[in-house]
Amino acid sequence: MRQNSLERLLAGMAASLRDVVEPALTDPYARSQVQAAVDLLRNLAPRVEWRCDDLLAVTTRLRDVLAEAVAEALDDAAELAEARAWLAQPPPAPTDNAALVAARTAGLRALAAVQDWAAAAAARGDAVGERVRERTRDLAAWQLEQELGRLVG
Amino acid sequence: MTAYPEVGAALATWLAGKLGVDAVSVDDLERHAEGFSWHTYTFTASWTDPDSGTPVRRGFAVRREPEDGLLAPYDIRKEYAVHRAVVEHSDVPMPGLHWLELDPEPLGMPFYVMDRVEGVVPVPWRRDDPRVFPDEAARHALGVDFVEVLARIAAIDWKAAGLGEVLDARDDPEEAARAEIEAWARFYHDSVLVEEPILREAIAWLRANLAVSGHLALVHADYRLGNFMVRDGRIVAVFDWELAHIGDPVFDVAWAGMPLYRGRDPRLSQLLEPAEFFALYTDLTGIPVEPEVYKFWTVFGHLRAGAPYLRATKAFEDGRSDDVRLAAFGHRLLFVLKSLARELGLRS
User: Fold this and answer.
1) From CA B118, how far away is CA B102, in angstroms rounded?
2) Across residues B51-62, what is the average pLDDT?
3) Nearest-CA distance from A112 to chain B in Å?
4) pLDDT tens digits, residue range B79-112?
5) Which of B312, B310, B226 is nearest to B271 (CA)?
6) Please, which residues bridge with residue B64 across strands?
7) B339 or A77: which carries more pLDDT confidence?
8) Which of B322, B337, B339, B344 is best to mutate for the A interface (most A CBs within 10 A)?
9) Which of A50, A53, A147, B242 has its CA 20 to 30 A from that of B8?
10) Are B117 and B63 in contact (CB under 8 A)?
């Protein structure tokens, strides 16, 4: 669900209902339902946002794992540069939704680079790489459980 | 009168040219909407044989390249060449093949024409379809047929069939597997909007745990419920060769066993128990299904299944489509990740 932006999801659903579903309906009552749904979706867009508490939980976990990776790594691996840069930024305010979304996305991108680095280091038998890899695996598992907890159907 | 009148009219004109007749009538035109990429139409064509003057009626199917889709970019010439090679070099049940049209003018994109096959396509979400599974004995018999057809695919002499060049084959099984990992890692990287740590972990795991059977064969790469047709309890056509390649044949076994296509049913593709499936496959092909190889290709299968879902959400986000089914892949991906997490020991 988090792959798409909320704005695009709402706009796309409205467009699909308006351009695909409504023209295919012949029943006036059904058409009125679709028109109302389109109206609601378009007016929801400026009023809703992804949950800040979910985003804050992810960015807090990311900060812990990335900080540990950077602190433990003795080399100056380029793969860790993004993590260092991300950690150098002040954490977003807990209610600043746009900043939290951006921090979540950038933090996960930094984590991906750390995952690559840790996997390569672990393959060389590097104990730090092994430890960081376990932490990234734990984070991946935790994040999945968070997402599954929101899954309906 | 037919649905899609513009498509029907274009096909009638085009087919008359191919058959060398004055006129062709197209009826019963249907677009099959199961897929998210290729457009498939079936229809009945009628014309008068110019030599004998007798009327002819014949069913055809058209497979048209999509403009965009889950697995873009597409190459219809490759799929056509694979289809032809399988028809000419095996007894795998396939629709008879006719023409390849590379000119996009008639239908908007290149397409090819084959025979229409009559039957039922069993799908994963209708596990007890009475037309296909009237009883458990029928399910078992179809499972045996499913393995036998898969063994015939693996037995195709792909070099003799000219598929080495068409499919850019590698000579070494491990090298071929590594190339597949890197190709799908690139596909993931090019598609993902918000990083999915579980899929990143899967890529790292695959690189560190390479395990192959040591064989190279033609791999269908999407051999499962939904991609073959059944009539009178037997498979009469295998479809959707768009991902076919030369690789480890055990991938097809692992893909048939993907939880995505069997749910909680332990049987591979809801047809045969793993032990029976593996034993029969090995008897027929001489290729053992080793647990570590099966696991390797199962983990790979999750990457292969999940990455196109990400491509779909990206197409939606970029505004290239308002098809909300593409956006819905964003949350369906969670089912792939859930199953993948189990394979990686991240979930009980």
Assistant:
1) 27
2) 95
3) 7
4) 999 999 999 999 999 999 999 999 999 999 999 9
5) B226
6) B39, B111
7) B339
8) B322
9) B242
10) no
How far, CA to CA in Å, does A147 sit from each of A2, A153, B48, B117, B330? Answer: 9, 13, 61, 43, 11
The pLDDT of residue B1: 43
Question: Would you call B331 helix, strand, or coil by DSSP?
Answer: helix
What residues contact residue B203 under an 8 Å CB cut-off, 6+ apart?
A: B181, B185, B188, B303
Residue B320: per-residue pLDDT: 83
**Measured between beta carbons, which residues in chain A are less than 8 angstroms from residue B327?**
4, 8-9, 12-13
**Which residues of A fall within a CB distance of 8 Å from B192?**
3
State the Cα angle at A141 between A136 and A147, rounded to 5°: 125
Contacting residues for A123 by C-beta, under 8 A, at least 6 apart: A129, B207, B208
Is the pLDDT at B130 greater than 70? The verdict is: yes
Query: Within its chain, how far is the Cα of B147 from the centroid?
Result: 16
Inform me whether the C-beta atom of residue B319 falls under 8 Å from chain A C-beta atoms.
Answer: yes
Tell me what pLDDT residue A148 has. Answer: 93
User: In the 8-state DSSP scheme, what is residue A91?
Assistant: P
- Write phi, then psi, for A49 (nearest 5 degrees): -155, 160
Report how far residue B162's alpha carbon sits from residue B85's, in angstroms, rounded to the nearest whole number.
8
Prior bond of B73 cis (ω within 30°): yes
Residue type, B50: P
pLDDT one-digit tens code per residue, A42-99: 999 999 999 999 999 999 999 999 999 999 887 778 889 999 999 999 999 999 999 9
**B201–A1 CB contact, under 8 Å:** no
Q: At what angle do helices A6-16 and A28-44 cross, to 10 degrees?
A: 160
Mean pLDDT of chain B: 93
The C-alpha of B84 sits at a distance from chain A's nearest C-alpha, in angstroms, of 37
CA distance B17 to B47: 12
The neighbour count for residue A134, using CB atoms within 10 Å, is: 12
Q: Work out the number of other CB atoms within 10 angstroms of the CB of residue A101.
A: 20
Sequence-ordered list of residues with C-beta below 8 angstroms from that of B10, at least 6 positions apart, any chain: B106, B107
With an 8 Å Cβ cutoff, is A13 touching chain B?
Answer: yes
B136-141 long-range contacts (CB < 8 A, ≥24 apart) are B138/B233, B139/B270, B139/B271, B140/B271, B140/B272, B141/B233
pLDDT in tens, B25-49: 999 999 886 667 788 899 999 999 9
- Phi then psi for residue B164, to 5 deg, are -60, -45
Task: Calculate mean pLDDT across residues A107-128.
Answer: 95
